[in-house]
């Protein structure tokens, strides 16, 4: 018997990918909502917001697909992708603050959206910390 999708466990490694994808799709839904961002203003800031959210997911996806094994260059590449994804979470929070001011977004929406970003950022940081314990020995060789 199969387990319904909502009840499946995703393991720690995949959780960051699932949450980053959810953040990107939620962001795209908000930014294309004409009630939230009127069409005449959608390009002003929504493009940057969408780009940033998608970049977070793509960097996490790419980092997850880097097979480090015993290659220090691959570890550094993976680590840079993780750092860029975490930095883009900070950038997304700043962009959301600008959007809140300009478009008078509801506090409830900004709080939920921001908490999604913070969750993803914390997962990325935890993932990177775990990887550092696993791979930093490669840099000392």
Question: Quick gist of this model?
Answer:
The chain has four helices and no strands.
Please characterize this protein's 3D structure.
The chain has 141 residues and is mainly alpha-helical. It has a single domain (12-140), classed as Up-down Bundle (de novo design (two linked rop proteins)), CATH 1.20.1440. The protein has four helices and no strands. It has helices at 11-31, 42-64, 72-103, 107-135. The longest helix is centred in the middle third of the chain and has 32 residues, at 72-103. The radius of gyration is 17 Å and the shape is elongated. The model is unreliable at 1-5 (pLDDT under 50).
Descriptive terms for the model:
mainly alpha; 141 residues; 4 helices
**Which class of secondary structure composition applies to the elements?**
mainly alpha
Rg, nearest Å? 17 Å
Our count of domains comes out at: 1
Number of alpha- plus pi-helical segments: 4
The name CATH uses for the topology is: de novo design (two linked rop proteins)
Helix content: over 70%
The whole-number mean of residue pLDDT values reads 90
Give the class-level CATH name. Answer: Mainly Alpha
Spans with pLDDT under 50 lasting ≥5 residues?
1-5
State the end-to-end distance: 49 Å
- Tell me the major beta sheet: none
Name the quaternary structure.
single chain
CATH architecture title: Up-down Bundle
Question: How do the helices and strands follow one another from N- to C-terminus?
Answer: HHHH
**Tally of extended strands?**
0
CATH superfamily: 23S rRNA-intervening sequence
